[in-house]
Amino acid sequence: MSFSELNIDVFRAINDLGKEYSMFNPAVYFLAEYMMYIFALGLVVYWLTRTTKNRLMVIYGVISFVIAEILGKIAGSLYSNYQPFAELPHVNQLIEHEIDNSFPSDHTILFFSICFLFFLFYKKTGWLWLVLAFAVGVSRIWSGVHYPFDVAAGALLGVLSALFVFWTAPKLAFINQLLALYEKGEQRIFPSKNKSNDKSKNF
Q1: pTM (predicted TM-score)
Q2: DSSP of the chain, one letter per residue?
Q3: Is the Cα torsion angle 139, 145, 149, 151 positive or negative in sign?
């Protein structure tokens, strides 16, 4: 069996679940299309905790996503394929999407680059973020807009980017300096008696 055939077979196995278990399609549609907005709200909530550790985690997460997205654009220029619904018959398509290069999956890059970074910060509870990232990746296949290879590549780029940032960003003093400057100004405008002085290290 060729790689292309395997990619299609795995896609069919997941995408056909939407035909067999159609009652789950609304939930999958929400995961695939709107979870990113809930996720963005989660980042804001972490930021509003006003703890240095959480804020560094958010900053690192954003940096991780930017790096992974750049790598994704480079990968997409080297390899490309259209969405499954544009290439295959009888696809369970839940999302309207323009036909373009679907490799790698941008949604998967977003979730894995940040969720894996969160996991590195909070290993005891961070696995919940990994479950969310995995669920979003599967939802993009179930919805008919990505092949498994698109999602796997996005996940790999996200994980590698998160590891790189987690290992290197703490060595960049200017990030802590800029955050400290921001928090100093914030404290003057919005004083908080419970402001944490927790400093981020490798966890």
Answers
A1: 0.90
A2: --HHHHHHHHHHHHHTHHHHTGGGHHHHHHHHHTHHHHHHHHHHHHHHT--HHHHHHHHHHHHHHHHHHHHHHHHHHH-----HHHHSSS----S----S---S-HHHHHHHHHHHHHHHH-TTTTHHHHHHHHHHHHHHHHTTS--HHHHHHHHHHHHHHHHHHHHHGGG-HHHHHHHHHHHHHHHHHS--TT---PPP---
A3: negative
Q: pLDDT at position 151, please?
A: 98
Over residues 52-98, the pLDDT tens digits come to: 999 999 999 999 999 999 999 999 999 999 999 999 999 999 998 89
For residue 114, the SS3 value is: helix
Domain extent listing, the chain:
27-189
- Rounded-to-integer distance, Cα 79 and Cα 157, Å: 14
Choose among 76, 77, 99: nearest CA to 145.
99
Q: Measured between alpha carbons, how far is 181 from 173 in angstroms, rounded to an integer?
A: 12
Structural tokens at position 73: 């654009």
pLDDT tens by residue, 124-148 = 888 999 999 999 999 999 999 999 9
Mean pLDDT of the region 151-167: 97
